[in-house]
Amino acid sequence: MIKRCKWVTDDPIYIEYHDKEWGIPVHDDRKLFEFLILEGAQAGLSWITILKKRENYRKVFDDFDPVKVAQYGEEKIQELLSNKGIVRNRRKIESTVNNAKEFLAIQKEFGSFDKYIWQFVGGSPKINNWNRIEEVPVTTVESDLMSKDLKKRGFKFVGSTICYSFMQAVGMVNDHTTDCFRYSEV
Q: Is pLDDT at 169 greater than 90 in this prediction?
């Protein structure tokens, strides 16, 4: 039997996400933008809820193209608020538009969002050695610093817990438990 991190349920979407995505280093700006937005959308909800809505998010947010999302106006926001395929929270939708604008500003300043965001872990993944899921923190010094800097730059829904979840998802940290088959693979 394959041993996975304990947070993974028997839901095929969760298994697929854990086995093929979670914790693998991401350096593509559009993918980083997608994860940043989805982690913010997840605030107060379960990650499986977001995973089940992910394809619709991609469709209605122009495949997470920050240039297009940054141009959304009130008409598009109203359209999104009526879409049952996403989390229909005005603050979260408005933050997505806002964060797209700030994302573009970081790209302009640093050359890429990737270059900016990976500086919080020194450019390479931090490898942790957790034996049990209970040992995995919800925030770290790095996520605190990331959150503080993103907020200073005008981002919304980027608290330290959201930032740490983002870091886990995009492989900035390897938080697979040591007994998980993905631990050594990642």
A: yes
Whether 47 is catalytic is yes
C-beta separation of 157 from 40 below 8 A: yes
pLDDT range class, residue 27, cuts 50, 70, 90 = very high
Catalytic residue among 22, 34, 39, 142: 39
